[in-house]
Amino acid sequence: MRFILFYLAKPKYGGWPTYTAHLHRGLRSIGYEPIVIKVGNKTESKTRNYGRKIHYLNVNINDLPELAKKYPSIITAVDKSGREAADLLLEQGVPIVVHDPTELKNGMKENLSDSKIVVIRETMLKHLPNAHYIPHPYARRKTTLIRKNKRSVSISRVDFDKHTEIICEANQSLEEPIDIYGFLNTMYAHFNLDDVYPDWKNNYKGTFDAEDLYSGEKIAEQYQNVVDMSRIKGDGGGTQYTFLEAANANSNLILHTGWEATGLLADYAQSITTTDELIDFINSDRTPSQDAIESLLNFHDATKIASNYQQYFNWPVELQ
Questions:
Q1: Which of 164, 162, 142 is nearest to 249 (CA)?
Q2: Does residue 176 share a domain with residue 77?
Q3: Are residues 282 and 269 located together in one domain of the fold?
Q4: How many CB atoms lie within 10 A of CB 234?
Q5: Distance between CA atoms of 161 and 230, rounded to whole angstroms?
Q6: Secondary structure (DSSP) of 16-82
Q7: What is the pLDDT of residue 320?
Q8: What's the rounded Cα separation, in Å, for the pair 283 and 295?
Q9: Both 74 and 8 in a single domain?
Q10: Does 197 lie in the same domain as 62?
Q11: Smallest Cα–Cα separation from 292: which of 319, 256, 259, 261?
Q12: The domain spanning residue 240 has which CATH number?
């Protein structure tokens, strides 16, 4: 059966498109034929490349309700550009995924009062108490345990909420600096990095390929440590995709204590508060717990998560 993933946002990198792609794989593994839908000026007959080895179709906003009536569907992400389309689909009873508190600005929270909402971290329930928590789906890539020939890497965005300045500060003292990959917010770099750490770009390796869902994981598997200093106001505790990619790569994961890792994530990750603690951990020779990695990845298994969605929303699984 066809399944519609409404992607009502502009970003090509980051958690939103990554989530959509992993859920796509999970739904396919339980028998659906998922397709990503974006809003276009007109409804097209040919799909376009979404990256990550999947495709999307542009559909005129006026044709969205008919798709929602015909097939099981969910809104996987929405930004300002997709608000009108989201409101139209929410009126049709289409469920929506809310990833973090920043998405609830400018009246969006009020618009969700009567909607079917999924959140991907339990901490989001304090913002949306009527939502249903279903963890990130992650379609694991088969890897082998290989000897890591590089020390440390960051595969997050270079941005305000990622606090890349902590990594740049640590790099001033590390004999083997942390390599930095990811989409660059030039405004953040200008105001927080360029003057304070003028040589920071010596360790910046650029973005990675959106064509491959596992490009971040493939980078991470070369390194002993993955460093992610994320802190999001009013959020945290659960996973981000960089965390799961680090686990899939069999690397140590170093987080900031401000993320407040709990449960299976806390069993796997090391949390630090200061730059000195970050430097000390990187200079140590540690290996991650394989039991902790297996437990975390099994909990987020995309097939299991897709089944959770299907059962919760009682979506049909056979052709009518």
A1: 142
A2: no
A3: yes
A4: 12
A5: 6
A6: HHHHHHHHHHHHHHTT-EEEEEEEESS--SS-EEEETTEEEEEEEGGGHHHHHHHS-EEEEEE-GGG
A7: 38
A8: 27
A9: yes
A10: no
A11: 261
A12: 3.40.50.2000
The answer to whether residues 226 and 246 touch, using CB atoms and an 8 Å cutoff, is yes
Whether residue 143 lies inside any domain: the answer is: no
Number of compact structural domains in the chain: 2
Q: Is residue 320 part of a domain?
A: no
Question: Looking at 55-69, 138-152, 243-257, which range is the least confident one?
Answer: 138-152
Q: Are residues 170 and 100 in the same domain?
A: no
Is 86 found in the same domain as 28? yes
37 exposure class (CB count in 10 Å sphere: 0-12, 13-18, 19+): buried
Phi first, then psi: give them for residue 37, nearest 5 degrees: -115, 130
Q: Find the radius of gyration of the CA atoms of the chain.
A: 20
Residue 143 to residue 149: CA distance in whole angstroms: 16
pLDDT at residue number 318 = 67
Mark out the alpha helices in the chain (DSSP H runs): 15-29, 64-70, 83-91, 108-111, 164-171, 186-192, 215-220, 241-248, 263-268, 275-283, 290-299, 302-313
Bridge partners, residue 77, by sequence: 7
- The number of C-alpha atoms within 13 Å of 252 and in the hemisphere containing its C-beta is 21
Distance CA(294)–CA(291), nearest Å, equals 5
| Enclosing domain of residue 126 | 2-138+302-313
**pLDDT tens digits, one per residue of 118-127:** 999 999 999 9
What CA–CA distances, in Å, run from 240 to 164, 195, 243, 293? 16, 29, 5, 14
In this predicted structure, what is the pLDDT of residue 319? 44
Phi and psi angles of residue 224, each rounded to the nearest 5 degrees, phi first: -70, -35
Same domain, 154 and 295: yes
Partners of residue 133 on adjacent β-strands: 119
Do 259 and 178 lie in a common domain? yes
Determine the residue type at 25: R
